[in-house]
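ok posting inputs for the glyoxylic acid job
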Amino acid sequence: MKKILITRRLLRSCEEKAEKTFKANLNLNDELYSQKKLIELSEGCDGLLSSLTDKLDTETISKLPESIKIISNFAVGFGNIDLEAAKKRDIAVTNTPEVLTDATAEIGVLLILGACRRASEGIASAREGGWKWSADYLIGKQLTGARLGILGMGRIGQKIAKIAKSLGMVIHYHNRSKLSGDKEQGAIYHNNLKDLLSVSDVLSICCPASKETVDMINKDTIEYLPKGAVVTNVARGDIVDDEAMIDALERRKIYAVGLDVYKNEPNLNPGYLKHKSAFILPHLGSATKDTRTAMANLAIDNIDEFFNTGNCKNKVN
Ligand code: GLV
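and the output
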């Protein structure tokens, strides 16, 4: 039986599955392992089942024991893992696509609704009490008829587009390549970022994090957006330059932001807290029982497939 280190707690039924499939070393206290501890605990293991909270950078990967042949990431994103470093060491890296598309798109839509309709302010006022209804009280931005720009039209972007379309939004997108008509579903393609941003009343960031997308939304690119645009991010915090975004909120260039992810999680840039129009969630994209179960089971199956066949359909490096 292969020996696996599971770096964070999984839902119990998934830990049981892991224990049936492998000799699984669980993290019952759900401790956030330091890189040093993770390397030590990997000793004698054949694979890791990692989480997005594990920073598997070049140095950490170079120090992993020779016996490690696979890192199965419990996430669709893999920006926490240096793919090149893993490839050099002949370690396969896998992810958990598809199973979290719907749950993550739901949060993507919640961000759009929450930011446009001033949910943060509304919730705070309702809790505080004493608010007074009036014709112009907490007036927000209506989605019907607004243009939604989707940056990264992968599975999650496509699902957000589908829901947003049913809410009456007009969908635009930018992607490395134009999608086929059945995937596009009437959305308008822009072959560059500038063109997409210039028509985005609301922006939904859905693209993967990579060296190319770090700070893609920055001081300069924010200026391409229409004045009073809303920016939402359901992908990865690294894609947005927070200082530039906070400055744009201050200048009212940006009306509101909806963020499920941000740099340096869980520590939110305090500049956002000054803005009532910031609707912020703690990285809840895939957080439903069904989805987290499916993700963990897939992460386990990826390891099993790899050791049984020497390959895995969800290998990303
Ligand atoms: C969640 O953020 C994931 O990448 O799975």
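notes: The first strand starts at residue 3 and ends at 6. The chain has a mean pLDDT of 97.
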